[in-house]
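queue> holo job accepted (NAP)
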Amino acid sequence: MKIKGSTNVVALIGHPVEHSFSPPMHNAAFKSLKMDYVYTAFDVNPNDLENAVAGAQALNIKGFNVTIPHKIEVMKYLNEIDEVASLIGAVNTIDFKDLKGYNTDGIGAVKAIGEVTNIKNKNVVIAGAGGASRAISFYLAKYGADKLTILNRNVDKAQKLADDVLASGLIDDVSSDDIKNMDLKDVDILINTTPVGMHPNVDDVPIASAEEMHEDLVVFDAVYNPNETGLLKEAINVGAKPVYGIKMLLYQGAESFEIWTGKKAPIDVMEEALRKTLGF
Ligand SMILES: NC(=O)c1ccc[n+]([C@@H]2O[C@H](COP(=O)([O-])OP(=O)(O)OC[C@H]3O[C@@H](n4cnc5c(N)ncnc54)[C@H](OP(=O)(O)O)[C@@H]3O)[C@@H](O)[C@H]2O)c1
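queue> job finished
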């Protein structure tokens, strides 16, 4: 990649950012399409967030990805927030053309699941009620899921998310329960957004076992390290369809790429770069 006077800059902001997988994924995409763009990362202290956004505008930076801890706070400094991002209450992508914020995490998960099944009219159980669950839940509603059950250790938190999703008017059957009460009998899609099974705790008891699953189930694990989590192994054992966490990373990146550039993201190139960085 040749950096020239004309090179367009996009970047990740967060605190910290040094372990991000996004720079190799996006730079591989720009290179494959021979685009005069570079993707870098900036560690931004929370106290400097407003200056970082104003500075990026002044420097004609084209776009940001936004990660922890800035996803909520940064919305204050934007002109416009995409409708679903606004319901979610967090953004992970900024387009400086119009200083507009988007949330591509949830759409990333929905597209990952969309590789094996259609979300429309499905009965979905989602475990966890944190940031990832919130982003995914609103997109499940937007893409026509019929029924959503949010399971969490802290049931009040799950109920708050259920209330918010219901209030969006995008879906009319949303409920919450304790994660201990997992019942997958009539469920089409199970989504894990808890860190259970994440490296280094790869031997944690998964949130659901093969005995609780059935072969028509689709199981998506947002955990991407390891690639094949204990939960996905249980799914494979019972003949259910696994969807790997890496695909959510991939499709959220692809969606951001398309927002900034208006060009179709080269999915295969991005996936290859991501796998190389993650080592699988
Ligand atoms: N593939 C991707 O692109 C992608 C993107 C985003 C996140 N993720 C992954 O998704 C996971 C969650 O991220 P997040 O940002 O949503 O985190 P978060 O906001 O901290 O939420 C974590 C959720 O998991 C629950 N939880 C934590 N430890 C648990 C345990 N031992 N047993 C049962 N439930 C537990 C918490 O329940 P309580 O409320 O009861 O504490 C909470 O609902 C992480 O593993 C992250 O790496 C993946």
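queue> The pocket of NAP is lined by residues 105, 128-133, 152-154, 157, 179, 193-196, 198, 222-224, 245, 248-249, 252 (CB under 6 Å).
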